[in-house]
Amino acid sequence: NDHRSRAGMAVSTSGALYSYNDVTNQIEVYNAGSDSWSNLMTGPGVGFVARPLGNLEVTTSGRFIFTHAGTDDLYYSDGGGVWTSVDISGVTFNGQGDYDSTTNTLVAGILNNRRMVEIDLTSFAPTLSSSAGSSGEFRRGGTILDGFVYQNTSSNGIDVWDLSNLAAAATSVTQPAGTSWVGMAADRENGLLYISALSGGVFGYYDPLANTFTALANSPSASHTSLNLVTANTIVPEPTSISLMLVGAFGIALRARRRRSWRQ
């Protein structure tokens, strides 16, 4: 069913899919068995007038984290609809972000710059990546896979940073033909990066080790889509196979972290 969210969605390690409804100010949870959403708790209540984008994540401890585009505000909640705001000095967020449950790592995108920031989840101290250039848009992606973070700006390729050395210059991957402003979701169990085009339906997965893109059946040709990946291991009803959802943020899959050597 159609669903409203102008924020990237969150997937827990148990396979639950969460969304922030910016009209009702509710964190909602998806039930695949009934194809329906229900309210979980009150949201952070931030305004979406000037910058109508944000990103929602949920950690292995069950803490919800929300970053609001156009501000340096990070919000977190351990439940019950009670939220705490933290100013992350020196950054202005865009709508990107991802959380890697295998390493307890949170990243977010920087507004108007092809750049990412890693945020320590204990101290909330930021570590900025190198810049790969300016960007007049909010960008897409911002996804962690095997110790690297990937993001895309229009048709400029996919920028890649090594999380173990964010100060180093980003490398670049040629994005699949027919794609721009691509959405991404990490399949951490299989080491693959799923990619969807902003429009036009191009959809498939990128294998960083082989440096290959495999096209799959076209996705719905909707505008401003991004990806979620939900595993079958879940406490909410899900299909028996992996579900790929063109509805929001970036996925959480279950496996121990594997370090990969980067191939351009």
Compact summary:
By secondary structure, the chain is mainly β. It has strands at residues 7-8, 10-11, 17-21, 26-31, 36-42, 54-58, 64-68, 73-77, 84-87, 93-100, 105-110, 116-119, 126-128, 140-145, 148-152, 158-162, 171-173, 183-187, 192-196, 203-207, 212-215, 228-230, 243-245.
Strand content: 35-45%
**What structural class results from the helix and strand content?**
mainly beta
Low-confidence stretches: 234-264
Q: SSE string, helix = H, strand = E?
A: EEEEEEEEEEEEEEEEEEEEEEE
Sheet bearing the most strands, described? 5 strands, mixed
| Overall average pLDDT | 84
The span between the termini is 39 Å
Plain-language structure description:
- With 264 residues, the chain is mostly beta strands.
- It has strands spanning 7-8, 10-11, 17-21, 26-31, 36-42, 54-58, 64-68, 73-77, 84-87, 93-100, 105-110, 116-119, 126-128, 140-145, 148-152, 158-162, 171-173, 183-187, 192-196, 203-207, 212-215, 228-230, 243-245.
- Helices cover 0% and strands 40% of the residues.
- Strand 2 and strand 3 form a beta hairpin.
- Residues 234-264 have low confidence and may be disordered.
- 43% of the residues are buried.
- A five-stranded mixed sheet has the order 1-6-7-8-9, with no helix packed on it. It has a four-stranded antiparallel sheet with strand order 2-3-4-5, with no helix packed on it. The chain has a four-stranded antiparallel sheet with strand order 10-11-12-13, with no helix packed on it.
